[in-house]
Write a structure and sequence with these properties.
CATH class of the largest domain: Alpha Beta
Shape: globular
Number of helices: 14
Largest sheet: 6 strands, mixed
CATH superfamily of the largest domain: Bordetella uptake gene, domain 1
CATH architecture of the largest domain: 3-Layer(aba) Sandwich
Distance between the termini: 61 Å
Structural class: alpha/beta
Strand content: 15-25%
Number of strands: 11
CATH topology of the largest domain: D-Maltodextrin-Binding Protein, domain 2
Number of domains: 2
Helix content: 40-55%
Order of helices and strands: HHHEHEHEHHEEHEHEHEHEEHHEH
Mean pLDDT: 88
Length: 331
C-alpha cells in the first residue's frame, strides 16, 4: 500500500489539502459578500451621553446606511469597561456584536493579570477617531503654561492636586508617568471626565488631565486654563494651546492614546474584519462626519486592521511600562 502511495505524484497527494483550503477561502468570501444580513449591535462600555457614546451614534448613523442594516447601540457601562468587553468576548464571531471603546482603556484592562483570555483575544478591527487631550489648570492658579506648571511641581512635590476620569484610567497612568519623571501631584480620581472638570472649574482641584471637548467651554468662560495638549502635534481648532512636547520633549505618549476603536469577538473572520474596516474608513472620511467630529474636538484616525493591531500593542506596551515602573495596582 505504501509503495502505491509513493508512486502517486506529490501534487495529487496534496490535492485534498488544497481543496480544503479552496473551500475555506470560498466560504470566507461568501460570508463577506452576504454580510451583514441582520442588525449589528454596537456595544459601548460607557453611559449614554458621553463623548464615546456620542461618537458611536454619529458613526453608526452613517455606517448603518452604508451597510444597509440597522446598527443598534447598547450601553453596558461598569467595571472600567470590563462588563462590555466580557459581553463581546463571549459573542458569536459573526460580525453582529462589535465593541466600540477607547483603545487605551481596553489596553489597560487587557494588561491586568486577572483579565480573561477571551478579552485579551478580542479582534482589533480599526481605529476610528481620537479626542484631543488636554491638560488644564484651575482659574487663579497662576501657572498658565506647561513650563510653569512643571517647574512649580518639581519644586513643590505633592502640593498640587490633579483630577482624572478615575483610578486606573488612561489619564491616571499619564499622571503616574509625570510622577516618575519627577513631577509629583496628588491624584484625585473621579467617576468620569465631567465631574473632574466640574471640580476643576469649582476650584476643588488644581489640575485636570482631560480632553479639549470638556475643557474649551469652561476655558471660554474663564473658569479653567488649558495649558497643553498631551501629544506631539498641535490642533488647528486650538492653535494657542501647544503640544506638551514643547515643554517636555521626552513625553512618552506621542501617539494619540485615547483612540476610539472597534473590536470583534475572538476569531472574527478576516473577511468581515476587512469589510468593517473599509466601511468605517469611508464613513470617517466623509466631509459631513468630519465636520461633526471637529465640533467635538475629535480627529479622524483610521487604520487598516494590521496597522491598528500594531498600534494597540504599542499603546499597551507604553502603559505597561509606566504601570510596572510605578508598581501600580489596577486590580
Amino acid at each position: 500500500m505504501l509503495s502505491r502511495l509513493a508512486n502517486i505524484p506529490r501534487a495529487l497527494r496534496q490535492l485534498p489539502h488544497l481543496l480544503l483550503l479552496a473551500l475555506v477561502a470560498a466560504s470566507s468570501t461568501a460570508t463577506a459578500q452576504s454580510y451583514p444580513n441582520k442588525p449589528i449591535h454596537i456595544i459601548v462600555p460607557y453611559a449614554a451621553g458621553g463623548v464615546v457614546d456620542s461618537t458611536a451614534r454619529i458613526l453608526a448613523e452613517r455606517l448603518g446606511s452604508q451597510l444597509r442594516q440597522a446598527l443598534i447601540i447598547e450601553n453596558k457601562a461598569g467595571a472600567a469597561g470590563k462588563i462590555a468587553a466580557e459581553f463581546v468576548s463571549r459573542a458569536e464571531p459573526d460580525g453582529y456584536t462589535i465593541l466600540y471603546t477607547t483603545a487605551a482603556d481596553l489596553a489597560l484592562l487587557q494588561g491586568r493579570p486577572s483579565t480573561a483570555e477571551s478579552i485579551r483575544n478580542l479582534t482589533p478591527i480599526t481605529s476610528a477617531v481620537s479626542p484631543v487631550g488636554a491638560i488644564a489648570t484651575r482659574s487663579g492658579l497662576g501657572l498658565d503654561s506647561m513650563e510653569k506648571l512643571l517647574a512649580y511641581v518639581k519644586s513643590n512635590p505633592g502640593k498640587l492636586t490633579y483630577g482624572t476620569a478615575g483610578y486606573g484610567s488612561s489619564q491616571h497612568v499619564i499622571g503616574e508617568y509625570f510622577k516618575q519623571q519627577g513631577y509629583e501631584m496628588l491624584h484625585v480620581p473621579f467617576n468620569g471626565i465631567a465631574p473632574a472638570m466640574a471640580a476643576l472649574a469649582g476650584g476643588q482641584i488644581d489640575v485636570a488631565i482631560t480632553n479639549l471637548a470638556s475643557s474649551l467651554p469652561l476655558a471660554a468662560d474663564g473658569k479653567v486654563k488649558i495649558i497643553a495638549l498631551p501629544q506631539s502635534e498641535s490642533f488647528e481648532e486650538a492653535p494657542d494651546v501647544p503640544p506638551i512636547t514643547k515643554a517636555m520633549p521626552g513625553f512618552a505618549f506621542r501617539r494619540p492614546f485615547a483612540l476610539y476603536a472597534y473590536y470583534g469577538p475572538p476569531g472574527l473572520p478576516r473577511a468581515i474584519v476587512s469589510r468593517l474596516a473599509d466601511e468605517i474608513g469611508r464613513v470617517v472620511a466623509t466631509p459631513e462626519i468630519k465636520a461633526r467630529l471637529k465640533t467635538l474636538s475629535i480627529v479622524p484616525i483610521v487604520t487598516s486592521p494590521d496597522e491598528f493591531a500594531a498600534m494597540v500593542q504599542e499603546i499597551g506596551a507604553t502603559f505597561q511600562t509606566v504601570i510596572k515602573s510605578g508598581d501600580i495596582r489596577l486590580e
